[in-house]
Design a protein that fits this description.
The chain is α/β, with parallel strands linked by helices. Helix content is about 25%, strand content about 30%.
Length: about 375
Amino acid sequence: MVSKILLYLVAIGFGLFFALYMSAAVGWTFVYVLVCAPIFSFIVTFAIHKLKCVTIRAEVSRSMLYKREKAILRIYLKNKSLLPVPSVKIKLSAAKNLLTEDGHDYIVSIPPRTERVIEVNYTAKVWGVCSVGAEKAVLNDFMGFFHFAMPCTGASCEIRVFPDVPEIPGDAPLLRSAAEAAKFADDNEETKESDGFVKFGGMPGYTHKEYEDGDPVRRINWKLSSKRDKYMVRLDDEVESIQQTIVLDACGGADVFLNERAVEGMLAAALGLVKCGFETTVYCRFNGVFTQFAIAAPADVSALQTRMAEYRFADQPYKGGRIPISSVVGKGILLYTSFFDSKLSAEISSAEEQGINSVVITADNASVGNVRQVWRLNEDYSAELLN
């Protein structure tokens, strides 16, 4: 701005020099034009701004994306007046979830009764909801001396990016921990190795055997395996369904990548448990209220994946806490979090007093408080037991 004013004054000085020492008629005409130019520029630009002759709107080619897919943002600037619009500077909102190589600042001049379009290409990078569009718009006069802020209402759109559903092996230690998290106190549910079961030919048989490579993971009897501290495969029929509970911590940290890892880790666990014969109930908080999702088949995980595209972590704990204690009393839960702080640790301790066993799977590097089991979720979604 200062440099523009200096150049303007230098131009006037040059005109005065020309008028006094070379040609008065040409020089004074040049000076008068320069002096009147800012006035004319201000009047025209102010009239365009005051009459709201320029409108801005935005649209996206796709509002739902899987990671690594692309979308196009289009910003439409329309001049409804008979006067040209000197220039409009558009600053686009920064979207942490999306990657663009097109830049974030644009300057556009618009002829009378004309519409200009700005196109920006985005690639989905991280899970979550993000707003794209014009964050700030400024109308500049012809000389760049005056600036008028323009409203950006309707100049932004939302893009939702689906989380991935990673696959983890069915015999992963974390899934074994999931089996141990459930209460298996009823010894009557354990089928004994030899309880009257006889094979054809009169030879005594066994309803279980120790797991070997190649055995179907779905036939692991998790109840019996948790008691014997080794995998046992049922031979006579399918293992009955075992109910598991997964909770996604309602609060997230500042790192969007850690938040994403917690969400995708939760989905990976739900899919892995389904493939191992578990029926799972998942609790996630939407708009401040815990929502329950019943997971009994891979299609249910896909439906949850779709819903999680619109999930938002809270910056502060909701009233009622970060764990749905009243809904999971007496159960074992897998608690996925990206923000394992002292407040969550205290809430876990309170939940344990009500008979809730919590296995914590954290995406960050913190390990706070005295929790029965804490796992760290790695980038490849394998889990490392911390304690």
